[in-house]
Design goal:
- The structure is a single chain.
- The chain is built from twelve helices and eight strands.
- By secondary structure, it is α/β, with parallel strands linked by helices.
- It has two domains: 241 residues, Spore Coat Polysaccharide Biosynthesis Protein SpsA, Chain A, CATH 3.90.550.10; 76 residues.
- An eight-stranded mixed β-sheet has the order 1-8-6-7-5-2-3-4, sandwiched between helices.
- β2, α2 and β3 form a beta-alpha-beta unit.
- α6 runs parallel beside α9.
- The chain starts with a strand and ends in a 5-residue tail after the last helix.
- Keywords: Membrane, Transmembrane, Transmembrane helix.
- This is Glycosyltransferase.
Length: 338
């Protein structure tokens, strides 16, 4: 089994902490007091023993937890024999599972990884060092040779790029690492429901938290992507998600354009009536005139609502940032109050 090849680092965004060149052996050789508490949270079904061996090799001091849906007695015994804390949970949404893991496990750095692809463990020291360098979320995207994203994935990526100025490719991968303050703020304030990979990335982007990206080239396992269900219902759900995202994050642009469109429609529909009135000297209000006036009024109202919602969105983001900043880091947790 070949190891992933790390690609060149992605361009930094404004305000992001620069990446470092990381040597995994140096991380494992640091003194006990200098090492952050790392929790590896494995989910799904796969070769849990191989995953545990991989993470124990590169992160010998890390806690390893395995969460599975309705595990059988054999699966539970096999995971416990590998020396991992096992939690069998009833089947639920991915977002609910992530919230439960954040609520039950207390650590400084969380690594969320699927329980397959044991060679992914070699990336653990790199993403841990990225979080220690100041990033609150690090996304690990595995790109397999010959794979191409679907149309739905590309639409969602473009929508996130438009809403946040980039980082749209961080919404698909389930292999991520995050800091304690990100995990606690997500558990407390992030909207419930949806897909965890997408919502984790959106939560960091909404709060303008430092985000990192690691790309691994892989030929044996396809990348974990969220493909919308086939059919009209799947596409309707995807388009609804995109529209809701754009309206929530860029209301002034989206609703402003919608308001301008309504006003332009009202002016265009009133133009023939204005010409007739200029020629005859008078014109009684008719259905066309009333529709044009209603369209103009609706356009002004929608544009004003966009400005108001943009102000509320900025205030909501600022409150979320203040709440995340109030969550103590590892160095501050044990400091007694003055």
């Amino acid at each position: 089994m070949s190891h992933p090849l790390l690609s060149a680092p992605a361009p930094r965004r404004a305000g992001a902490v620069p990446s470092r060149i990381v040597r995994p052996a140096a991380w494992t050789s640091r003194p006990e007091a200098a090492v952050a508490e790392v929790a590896v949270l494995l989910t799904g079904r796969g070769d849990v023993a191989a995953m545990v061996r991989g993470y124990r090799t590169v992160l010998p001091r890390a806690q390893v937890w395995f969460y599975g849906f309705d595990l059988s007695a054999e699966e539970r015994a096999s995971a416990e024999a590998a020396g991992v804390a096992v939690r069998s949970v009833p089947r639920c949404g991915r977002d609910a599972l992530v919230r439960r893991m954040f609520a039950e496990v207390d650590a400084d750095i969380y690594i969320l990884a699927p329980a397959w692809g044991a060679h992914d463990a070699c990336l653990a020291p790199l993403i841990v060092a990225e979080v220690e360098a100041g990033r609150d979320l690090v996304d690990v995207r595995a790109v397999s040779s010959g794979s191409a994203p679907s149309i739905g994935d590309r639409l969602l990526v473009r929508a996130v790029d438009f809403a946040f100025g980039g980082w749209g490719d961080t919404v698909h991968s389930d292999f991520k690492a995050c800091s304690r303050r990100f995990a606690m703020s997500y558990h407390r304030t992030a909207p419930r429901g949806g897909q965890s990979a997408r919502d984790l990335a959106l939560h960091a982007l909404r709060l303008r938290l430092p985000v990192g990206r690691v790309t691994a080239l892989e030929a044996e396992r396809p990348d974990v992507v969220s493909v919308p269900p086939p059919g009209v219902a799947g596409w309707a759900a995807l388009l609804g998600t995109i529209v809701r995202l754009l309206v929530e994050e860029r209301p002034r642009r989206i609703l402003g354009l919608a308001g301008l469109g309504l006003m332009a429609l009202g002016i265009a529909s009133a133009a023939p009536g204005l010409e007739i009135r200029h020629w005859r000297g008078t014109l009684l209000p008719g259905p066309r005139t009333l529709a044009a006036a209603a369209s103009l009024a609706a356009g002004f109202a929608v544009a004003a609502a966009g400005v108001l919602l943009d102000t509320l969105a900025a205030a909501r983001q600022e409150v979320g940032r203040l709440g995340a900043a109030a969550i103590p880091r590892r160095a501050e947790r044990g400091t007694p109050a003055a």
